[in-house]
Amino acid sequence: MTRTDGHLLDNRQTEAAERFDAFAALFDPTTFRHLQALGVGPGWRCWEVGAGGTSVVSWLAKRVGPTGRVLATDIDTSRVAPAGRPPVEVRVHDVGAEEPPGEGFDLVHARLVLVHVPDHERAMRSMIKALRPGGRLLVEDADPALQPLLCPDEHGPEQQLANRLRHGFRQLLARRGADLSCGRRLPRLLRETGLRRVEADAYFPVTSPACAALESATVRQVRDQLVAAGVATHDDIDRHLTHVASGSMDLATAPMISAWGRKA
Ligand SMILES: C[S@@+](CC[C@H](N)C(=O)[O-])C[C@H]1O[C@@H](n2cnc3c(N)ncnc32)[C@H](O)[C@@H]1O
User: Fold this and answer.
1) DSSP state at residue 201
2) pTM reported for the whole predicted model
3) What are the φ and ψ backbone dihedral angles of 209, each rounded to 5 degrees?
């Protein structure tokens, strides 16, 4: 069920479910708007890459109906496994290291995945290879380097602590090979890999309860690594979690860039 040994954000940890719920609350409306505009409908064959949780897969399953197919892959399928009934099939697969798990797809979608894949050009080639001629690719990824702050309005010590922890977390991700300016490169990557009619846009919430839920779950999930790396003490982290829980801070995310195009 998993190939994630040593992964910083292990899907099997309880906080992962909270993070996937927060991603759904924050980004599903944007994702569904794009998928709808691409025409996803009855009978479509879709590959959901790095599926994480169930929300996107379940939405796709409803749209494609019983005559369609949704293949949901991840290096760790623990959280998406409950969605695995027709038309959904769940499979363990590493998009950066393996051949595509099928071909002739009408749609391939990956959200917040490529940033974690060291060889994302290979991943992109693999996703495009899996498409039928005329098939659509939608890739959505964060660009933390475009907007690196958790609190863009850094007006007091709580916000300064929040931004210091966020900076340390990003350093941990970068040390593990995450590409923190991946989002902005997506349109060029799509064009250079041969897609036509490439377009892109960006979305990021500036404050929302789901941002606070995401921050709390993420910090609890990586707290030991943050302390081990000297980014913060347990006391810093406890204070930060208390500030986040108070609901009085405006917490943002990195922008999510959505880029789409079609195979010639
Ligand atoms: C930040 S989560 C995003 C989950 C989901 N796509 C969403 O937007 O809610 C990243 C997901 O990508 C998966 N992942 C990371 N590297 C991967 C790889 N090389 N191949 C497939 N999945 C990968 C992780 O296991 C995790 O489920």
Assistant:
1) E
2) 0.95
3) -55, -30
